[in-house]
Write a structure and sequence with these properties.
By secondary structure, this protein is of the alpha+beta class. It has a single domain, classed as Arc Repressor Mutant, subunit A, CATH 1.10.10.10. The protein contains 8 helices and 4 strands; from the N terminus they run H-H-E-H-H-E-E-H-H-H-H-E.
Length: about 210
């Protein structure tokens, strides 16, 4: 039997690559005492539009409770703020502050420099290819085109058990997924805030997020 090589498995190749990329990102932002989750949140909010907690949770890949915890920290630092949606009083939106925009602008320079170093090693063409492959991978993974049984060696019994497990997940949802439903609140049009202008004090909401659907 040939000696097994973990690099034959795509998951085993992606894991150290992700670790390396994440470490590089953390090193780029550590001087500002921010973590990776903080950066993703600030990057999404840097469009100067208000985002609901449900939308933000999906985009930054965090559960509802984890997102609330991170937003609380960022609010205390003054880089983001909450405000009630002018078009829907039941919905709380999250905005980036002027200080937050300054932080993002500063951090982008460091992060872009790190990515330029990666592009220098791989080359422009291979870097673009890698991005395209990963985008295709993610689209297939989240678009419902992912095969439930991808290994030819799975026995019929194993496939049956796996199907039962998938059916249970379809009925009850993934573990921890309820956090997204609690914060499901779509922002409507008219939430755009031009840079340099913060929501009025009367609209500002400083409490923890608990919007209802």
């Amino acid at each position: 039997m040939p000696e097994p090589d973990l690099n034959d498995y795509l998951a085993c190749l992606l894991a150290p690559a992700h670790r390396g990329m994440r470490l590089g990102l953390v090193q780029s932002i550590s001087n500002d005492e921010l973590n990776e989750e903080h950066w993703r949140i600030l990057q999404v909010l840097s469009d100067a539009q208000g985002h609901s907690m449900g939308e933000l949770a999906e985009r930054v890949l965090l559960s509802g409770p984890a997102l609330t915890k991170n937003i609380d920290k960022l609010v205390r630092r003054g880089v983001v703020q909450r405000a009630v949606d002018a078009n829907n009083s039941r919905c709380v939106l999250v905005f980036i502050s002027d200080l937050g925009l300054e932080v993002v602008e500063r951090l982008i320079e460091r992060i872009d420099a790190k990515h330029e170093g990666i592009e220098f090693v791989l080359g422009t063409h291979k870097t673009a290819q890698l991005k395209k492959f990963l985008e295709t991978f993610l689209e297939a993974r989240t678009g419902g085109n992912w095969p439930r049984q991808s290994c030819a060696g799975i026995s019929d019994a194993g496939a049956k058990n796996r199907g039962s497990s998938d059916a249970r997940r379809d009925r009850h949802g993934p573990r921890g997924g309820r956090g997204f439903l609690r914060y499901r609140c779509r922002s409507r049009s008219g939430n755009r805030r031009p840079p340099g202008k913060s929501p009025s004090p009367a609209q500002t909401h400083t409490g923890s997020d608990n919007p209802t659907n």
